[in-house]
Amino acid sequence: FTMLKTQINSDKAAITISLVCVLHCFFVPSFVVIGSGFLSISFDNEFVHYLILLFALPVSIFALYAGYKNHKSSSFILYGILGLIILVTAVFLGEEVLGELGEKLLTLLGASIVAFAHYKNYRLCRALECDSCHD
Description:
Layout: H1 2-35, H2 45-71, H3 77-127
């Protein structure tokens, strides 16, 4: 019962982290430009990328593993692994190799695939006819 609840919550957390990743990638540069006159500190953008990835990887891996363990379905795992590989590639190759647009597009693609995998995992859990699986 606890593993199922934890899996549902970790899927929700992984989807949220994917959204944070996309929001950071697309909107933080605008906030920095707009707020540059008001901010006395600056954040290393690459550090933030690594920090988000540091949270995204274990949460996603745990949720995918827990979903597979709970439901014995692997229909979402390949999507999750592919999305995580794309995210890791975007972070490690970065703007220097991919260019700004390439990094953003790869990040958007990876985060979208990860979110889709966790949504499928979450929906599978919700579709089962067991009380312990539902919120």
